[in-house]
Amino acid sequence: MRGRNLVLAVTVAACAALSGCTDEGADRAAVPAPGPTVTSTAAPPDAAALAERYRQAGGDADVYGIERVPGPEGTSPLIVVRTHNADTGDARFKQQAASITAYLTLSEGVTLPHGYRMDVFGPDGGLLHRWDATT
What we know:
Elements: H1 2-18, H2 23-30, H3 45-56, E1 63-69, E2 78-83, H4 90-107, E3 115-121, E4 127-134
């Protein structure tokens, strides 16, 4: 399974590189993307603490990491979510995204004037969802 994920990741990266990305995409490619690595799916301490506060506020019990990475030059942030749930269903993702962004804005004081981007990683570190909700 991990081999297929690696092949898929390499294929997607190659396609993105050949598709004529914008300057913003080139800047993001130069910086390693946050998220699980091949050797670890553990969330960084700050991401685990944020997820704990989210769960205590009634958020999704499967979420064990939430990391907000500012976008370049004040653009939309990337929200990296780690979950124990491997469900790739669109309805579950939309509910989770709405719950997390509502928590971040109402309880953590995060502002999202230009929207956000969200990557959700599953229990094996594989990318479950990638969402661009920027304006």
